[in-house]
Q: What sequence folds into this?
């Protein structure tokens, strides 16, 4: 779907992935490997186009991909999978020094703020995608609210850790907690 109506190059996909990391996370190498794999399977067509410094591969959806997409969007969607490591770390504060948990959470604020900045940049680019601007706008507002919620959670977690820091539990208590 990221290829869209007009197609895209792997570099475009990587750029979209960086701005959309709130929705989906994958290694940068995946954004280059996956289009090649999908081309071999017949879901994308590929052609070479001139780039700024060298030729680039431009990918477009095939009819096979459009049919698979039409089938996939009809399948029931499930509750979003969220692997929130920070939430798990917070739960460790009754087993270890809460200051250590605070230390581990500290870099998260800058990352969340950077992601909010990326969402703002993405929002500015929405009008360029006239045919899907209304869809991108919905997702962008979701990303912004999600990131703001994460910042609120971080504020609360930091307050709790500072105000109610609990001493590390004894090993026997830790085993019962698991």
A:
């Amino acid at each position: 779907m990221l290829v869209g109506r007009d197609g895209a190059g792997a570099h475009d996909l990587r750029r979209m992935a960086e701005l959309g990391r709130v929705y989906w996370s994958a290694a940068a190498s995946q954004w280059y490997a996956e289009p090649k794999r999908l081309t071999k399977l017949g879901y994308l067509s590929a052609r070479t186009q001139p780039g700024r410094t060298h030729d680039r591969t431009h990918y477009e959806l095939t009819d096979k991909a459009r049919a698979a997409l039409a089938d996939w969007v009809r399948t029931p969607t499930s509750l979003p999978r969220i692997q929130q490591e920070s939430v798990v770390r917070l739960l460790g504060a009754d087993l270890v020094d809460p200051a250590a948990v605070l230390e581990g959470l500290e870099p998260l604020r800058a990352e969340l703020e950077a992601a909010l900045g990326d969402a703002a940049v993405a929002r500015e680019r929405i009008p360029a995608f006239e045919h899907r601007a209304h869809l991108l706008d919905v997702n962008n507002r979701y990303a912004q609210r999600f990131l703001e919620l994460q910042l609120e959670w971080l504020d609360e977690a930091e307050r709790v850790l500072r105000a109610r820091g609990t001493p590390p539990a004894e090993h026997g208590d830790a085993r019962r907690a698991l």
The chain has two domains: 8-72, 85-177. The longest strand covers residues 44-49. The radius of gyration is 21 Å. The CA atoms of residues 112 and 147 lie 6 Å apart.
